[in-house]
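hiii so um. not sure if this is the right channel but i have a protein structure encoded as tokens and i wanna go backwards to a sequence. like what aa goes where. can anyone help
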């Protein structure tokens, strides 16, 4: 079953780590472990939330808002898509993600198409 692991973290804290390069090694090791296990389907980092656009369509009117729609303390910073046997396995991988230490990992099953 496929799951998306969404990494949420305070962007200000992440920016400080990014300058020092402290965040890279744990994520590289995590991605390698996912690859080695055969669970990794895909994933990537996202640019900062201020680069986002939010699109809503009501009736025939399209509204485009600059930046994220939600005003939250933590922002979506990246994701992994994994293919594992069940939710328990997905939760185990989420707990191993470096982003779980200073943020949160949302685990969501994907629709089978």
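sure thing!! here u go:
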């Amino acid at each position: 079953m496929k799951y998306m692991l969404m990494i949420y973290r305070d962007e200000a804290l992440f920016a400080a780590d990014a300058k020092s390069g402290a965040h890279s090694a744990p994520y590289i090791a995590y991605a390698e472990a996912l690859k080695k296990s055969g669970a990794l389907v895909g994933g990537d980092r996202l640019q900062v939330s201020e680069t986002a656009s939010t699109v809503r369509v009501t009736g025939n009117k399209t509204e485009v808002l600059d930046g994220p729609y939600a005003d939250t303390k933590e922002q979506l910073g990246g994701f992994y898509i994994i293919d594992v046997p069940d939710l328990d396995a997905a939760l185990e991988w989420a707990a191993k993600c470096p982003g779980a230490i200073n943020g949160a990992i949302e685990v969501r099953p994907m629709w089978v198409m």
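oh and The longest strand covers residues 75-83.
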